[in-house]
Design brief:
Blueprint: H1 20-34, H2 39-46, E1 52-53, H3 54-60, H4 66-78, E2 82-87, E3 93-98, H5 100-103, H6 105-117, H7 123-129
Antiparallel strand pairs: 1-3, 2-3
């Protein structure tokens, strides 16, 4: 098997074709990178080229403690998803933005959200209603 779906292709040079095992491992690793309690919230706040200071993120995500927010940002930075810029001034000014690679997550997360929205309520309820739960056909 060379890919997981007919639409999947175009592997970067030097990458081997996907097998069921390598595809599932890759997806599992990807989900671990973005799977922290506040990571998705951080990503959605930074999508679209936004640059936010730590204090702005704190205000935008009030339920996250300062410690947890800092920890999640450090993990996203270590994974190459978020870029941290420290300006040499007093008081210190630290800004966060997505890397190009981090920004490239947006279409994938949009697709995942669309997939979730089209989740059938239940097989029994769907057949009783006679309603299609399929997404609109692509043209």
């Amino acid at each position: 098997m060379t890919r997981t779906h007919e639409k999947v292709g175009g592997l970067p040079p030097g990458k081997e074709p996907w097998t069921a095992t390598t595809a599932s491992d890759g997806i599992e690793q990807s989900l671990k990178m973005i799977g922290g309690r506040w990571k998705l919230e951080i990503l959605f706040r930074l999508f679209g080229g936004r640059i936010l200071r730590f204090s702005e993120l704190e205000r935008a995500i009030p339920a996250a403690s300062q410690k947890m927010l800092a920890q999640q940002l450090r993990q996203l930075e270590a994974d190459g998803i978020v870029r941290r810029v420290v300006h040499a001034q007093v008081p210190p000014k630290v800004e966060y933005a997505l890397t190009d690679w981090g920004e490239s997550l947006c279409p994938s997360l949009d697709t995942l959200l669309t997939w979730f929205v089209w989740k059938p309520a239940s097989d029994a309820a769907v057949s009783a209603m006679g309603t299609s739960t399929s997404p609109p056909a692509e043209e």
